[in-house]
Design goal:
heterodimer, A: about 270 residues, alpha/beta, 6-stranded mixed β-sheet, 8 helices, 12 strands, about 30% helix, B: mainly alpha
Amino acid sequence: MECQAKDLKVVTNGKTLLQNISFKIPNGAFVAIIGPNGAGKTTLLKSLAGLLTFTGNFLINGKPSLGLLKDKKRVPFSYTPQNFSIPVGMSLGEYVMLGRASRSNWFFGESQRDYDAVNVALERLKLLPKAKELVTNLSGGEMQRATLARALAQEADFLLLDEPTASLDFARTIDFLQLIDLLRKQLGLTVLLSTHDINSIIRFADYALVLKKGKNIHSGNLNSILQKNFLSDLYETKLDSIKDKTGYPIFYAKNHHNQTSPNSKEMTLLGSTD
Amino acid sequence: MDKVFTLPKTALLICIFLMILSGISSICLGAAPIPPIESLKYLFDLFLGQNQNPRINEIDRIIILEWRLPRFVLGFLVGASLAIAGAGFQGVFKNPLADPFLLGSAAGAGLGATLVIVTSVNLSFGFVDSIQVGAFIGAMGAVLCAATISASAGRTPASLLLAGVATAAFLTACQTYIMQRNFLSIQEIFGWLIGRLLTSGWTEVLTLIPYFLICFTLIYVFSKELDLLRLSEDESKSLGGNPTLTYIVVITCSTLVTAVAVSLSGLIAFVGLVIPHIIRLTVSSSYRVIIPLSALGGGTFLSLADTFSRTIIAPGELPIGVITAFLGAPFFAFLLRLSRGAI
């Protein structure tokens, strides 16, 4: 599904959080939403998910989106916040089944169709053997996959993920992004993912939405923003880059004396080679 | 994957078995010298449509049908009401300490009842006596007061909880002052505060039944929403939940059913706090299981406690609140020890 935003604006308690947001995302794109802290990445994702009201037009396949709250039967978006809850005493199966909440019967509960969707989602993420385990006993990586399983159980067309890799180590980050990319290709999903980890996301995403101070300063091909001057301006700090063996750039911050720290460079290189 | 969110049959059967056991013991045991077996036979005959048992005379019949049976049913309904209210409050406030008396309803009911007792004002309304009306008005007034304070502070679950604590503290202070000034009524006031299940027949049961049925149904319908609320509010909304409507419906129903129950029984603590936790620890943490099993478990527990309270020092009677805490607290402490962070 293709989506298009025209002049979106979000105002909460008299404060403008987002304005002049316009973009067009093709069907099945992997979109990286990047920008410094406070740029409005989370606000944008929440608005698209229908959790915040916005003015302007947001079109899906050319038709206005009513947002999640007003269109529960057809759930186009699945939103996973950065700080998701891990409920005490809840099994993984129950957790993923919550993804079916808007579809299952309000009195008689879940149908076989709901169980099938949950089973398929758990199977895809290799979590089926752990269905009975409490979510509090899962590792960080497994829990992150559990949120993805819940999102798949929703059978939404768009995955909105707010900094899903923020708490994962380097190897888990790459694994997780690889998994999302695979699911996107298999299921035809459109993924919008906010992140600060530019060095990892450039290996998977093909499209970028760049936000700064609540405004959209770039939307389009990801490769076109991979320049140290553009990113230095975006993050308001001097950045430099080198290329790894596969040709991807690796960005790193220069220190305050405007010199590259040999140690930090070495650490970035070590951490980025996969 | 196995079925989730469904009532486990074993737990349901155990609850129903215990409920029947508590019903039989409540009806067969008591201060009046009626042989338990004869009481049971009489009930069984009655169930089959026969009303003739030569060993049961008219007085025994009245004791069984007009005293013990309604008392069992009332005890069951009060226990069930307090337990579902407790489960509902724990769900919306995401707080394991939440109980039916959280929003100042107990303090309000206590003050209302105290005022009626010391002023001897006549508030009786149909079948309902003055103390019950006073307690009901007090409980609802306290909750409205807490809700108003909370609304001015941003209407979050935390602000409502704190407003409830402040309201309860203020009303309890008022009640203590009134009791100090009217020490002759202290015994009667304490009797009500500790809780009792004295009935005058089926009147109280018929008063509580409609409130219980409506509130139970609504809270059960919203139990799926309570499960979603175990996530963050944003996650709940993004999965199709409606947290605001859930807060309104569950808090209103829990408060209403508590107010009616305590106006009939006095303040019976512990049931609403502990029964939902016992179900949570032993059966499931899903509210779709906790709500119905809390109703069965709370009812069974309170009617058993009532049987103890009126037989243990018969013909005297212990306050039921003493029994609920005496039996429930050690058992709960034992479960808590086993829980290892599951609450």
